[in-house]
Amino acid sequence: LQCWEVRKHNSSEWCHFIRSNPDCRMDGGFLDYLSGVFCVFPPRLLPFAVTLYALWLLYLFIILGVTAEKFFCPNLSAISTNLKLSHNVAAPMSPWKGGHHVFSLTSPLHGVTFLAFGNGAPDVFSAVVAFSDPRTAGLAIGAIFGAGVFVTTVVAGGIALVKPFTAASRPFLRDVIFYMLAVFLTFMVLYFGRIRLGEALGYLGLYVFYVFTVVLCTWLHRRQRGDGPAPPGPWEPEMPTDPEEPESSGTNNSDYGDEYRPLLPSQETSLHILTTALSPLDYRKWRRKPWYWRLFKAFRVPVEMVLLLTVPVVDPDKDDLNWKRPLNCLHVLTSPLLCVLTLKSGAYGLYQIQGVFPVWGLVTLAGSVLAIIIFMTTSNEEPPKYHCVFAFLGFLTSAMWINAAATELVNILRTLGIIFQLSNTVLGLTLLAWGNSIGDTFSDLTMARQGYPRMAFSACFGGIIFNILVGVGLGCLLQMTSSQPLVKLEPDSLLVWVLAGALGLSLVFSFVSVPAQCFQLGKAYGICLISYYLVFLCVALLTEFRVIHLSTL
Predict the structure, then answer these.
(1) Residues 532, 153: contact at Cβ < 8 Å?
(2) Is the pLDDT of residue 245 over 70?
(3) How far apart are the first and last CA of the chain?
(4) What percent of the residues of the chain are helix, what percent strand, and what percent coil, each to the nearest 5?
(5) How far apart are the C-alpha atoms of 110 and 89, rounded to whole Å?
(6) Residue 448 near residue 159, CB atoms below 8 Å
(7) Distance of alpha carbon 46 from its chain centroid, rounded?
(8) H or E segment and range at residue 187
(9) Contacts with 45 (C-beta within 8 Å, 6 or more apart), sequence order
(10) CB neighbours of residue 1 within 10 Å
(11) What integer pLDDT is reported at residue 397 of this predicted model?
(12) What is the percentage of the chain residues whose pLDDT exceeds 70?
């Protein structure tokens, strides 16, 4: 029996059905949401349980956003700096992910690899987790395609409505062509109902070719203008400044500007450095902000404190590279411990060596010894020569945090689908796609209002290429084994084809209409795109609820 049939039984049989049905078992994650809603809560409290799950779902999106914003992206930037990548060209990637701005001047290679990975981390990790179970693969397909339709219609159309502009011709045509190729490849994979090793490598190979094309086009463009730095051209706009200056992880006096620095240098104690670094609040900013900003910040504070305690951040823009000696020594213990306790939902961390000593105990012992050695051989004022290693540790730990949050996110969405008898595809194209794209919407529209609509429009088509190619390619590649080098992607309903067709049609519409308007995009174009999305959403929901089905087509 399928797990979604639980609601067809008498409420007194729900718990037994969930616990005895193999289809209801959740392989990953820390919480068993199905047992919680059908066994822990009585049937009359089902609406209350659903409300709690919905609030937890929203909080998981906050966790994903905070982790990517303040820990994953900064450490990726530090790693790229250590790899000696130049910083000279604005990258056409999405400037926001998970509710934060990621404005950065980078080389094109940096932009389409490191920055793209940082910006798309929640989407890619969600796809990888969803592809790990055939029962939730529809979530990944729905989210990747649904986010693509949403961003290329609602966000792009909103930009044209807010600020009519002239689109950058070459980057737009390049990105749309590559995106259409990715959609066509996915359409073929869905048609055959499987993805083999060759197709999975084809996704990743197409992205590598896209990276090569971006770098080559940028090099040719710069060569035409001359080798020296020049004012930004029509497809290389100046980066806007963020009106709400980003807070750094672990604030201190130097973060507030020169006017707040003490006149005389003073030696801070290790305890003071630790307490200051673990404070996620900027009290000067707190007093200036409106009540709704404070409310949202209050929800973020517990997550930020736990992340500050477990994830080191290296900031190349600071004189001290964000070196906090007592906190970084503590990270030597907490970061590896968190990694082993989140890997496979703690299965490896709780494993007992020779049936006696747990792995987490060994990691704690080794981390404590190493932390004491680092504390005794370093100073508070100057970071050690090996401080860059903390960027790699922070990258790994923040990736484990994102993976753990994405696993819980996929599990809770599957649970909500079983409760409301909805397919994973419709949950992916609505809740998961909206949650991953809402940040892009606000940031791109804000950027357009500030006078940078061209950059915001480029981000709509440039950033999501990474999500579909790497999300599907890597997600399926990681699930393949030597005994079974393929992943079955059989469409569970007509909705998958509606979704794929809607995305392809929206791209073809933009590919034809934008050059036809000589790249002059105004309110009429924006209204058409937003209307298209509303029609698509209505058709998708009608298809989900069987109002539209094959016999009526």
Answers:
(1) yes
(2) no
(3) 30
(4) 70, 5, 25
(5) 10
(6) yes
(7) 31
(8) helix 169-192
(9) none
(10) 13
(11) 94
(12) 84
Three-state secondary structure string covering 446-500:
HHHHCCCHHHHHHHHHHHHHHHHHHHHHHHHHCCCCCCCCEEECCCCCHHHHHHH
Q: Give strand ranges (E) for 433-525.
A: 486-488, 520-521
CA distance 407 to 460: 26
**What is the pLDDT, as a whole number, of residue 113?**
58
- Name residues whose C-beta falls within 8 Å of residue 139's C-beta, 6 or more positions apart in sequence: 126, 130, 410, 413, 414, 424, 425, 427, 428, 432
Q: Does domain 75-83+105-224+388-395+402-552 have CATH number 1.10.940.10?
A: no
Cβ neighbours of residue 511 closer than 8 Å, sequence gap 6 or more:
173, 176, 177, 180
The pTM for the full model equals 0.77
8 Å CB contact between 443 and 96: yes
Tokens matching residue 415:
């649970």
The partner residues of 217 in beta bridges, in order of sequence, read none
**Rounded to whole angstroms, how far apart are CA atoms 451 and 283?**
31
Return the domain boundaries, the chain.
75-83+105-224+388-395+402-552
Task: Fill in the amino acid letter for 269.
Answer: T
Give the residues across from 166 on adjacent strands: 520
Task: Tell me the mean pLDDT in the region 125-140.
Answer: 81
Give residue for tokens 């999305």: 533
Nearest to 123 by CA among 471, 478, 413, 442: 471
Q: Is 224 helix (H, G, I), strand (E, B) or coil?
A: helix
Angle at 392 between CA 387 and CA 398, to 5 degrees: 120
pLDDT, tens digit, 9 for 90 and up, residues 110-127: 555 555 666 677 788 888
CA gap 158, 445 in Å, rounded: 7
Tokens coding 317: 């823009």
The DSSP H or E segment spanning 194 is strand 194-196
Distance of CA 305 to the CA centre of its chain: 20
Bridging pattern class, strands 105-106 and 486-488: unpaired
pLDDT tens by residue, 254-310: 444 444 455 545 577 888 889 989 988 888 888 888 888 899 899 999 999 999 999
Query: How far is the C-alpha of 70 from the C-alpha of 87, rounded, in Å?
Result: 20
Query: In the numeric block, which tokens belong to residue 147?
Result: 């986010």
Q: Which residues contact 351 (CB under 8 A, 6 or more apart)?
A: 358, 359
- What amino acid occupies position 544? E
Rg of the chain (C-alpha set):
24
CA distance 437 to 469: 17
Full DSSP string of 75-132: HHHHHHHHTT----EE--S-SBSSSSB---EE-HHHIIIIIHHHHHHHHHHHHHHHHT
What span, in angstroms and rounded, lies between the C-alpha atoms of 500 and 496?
6
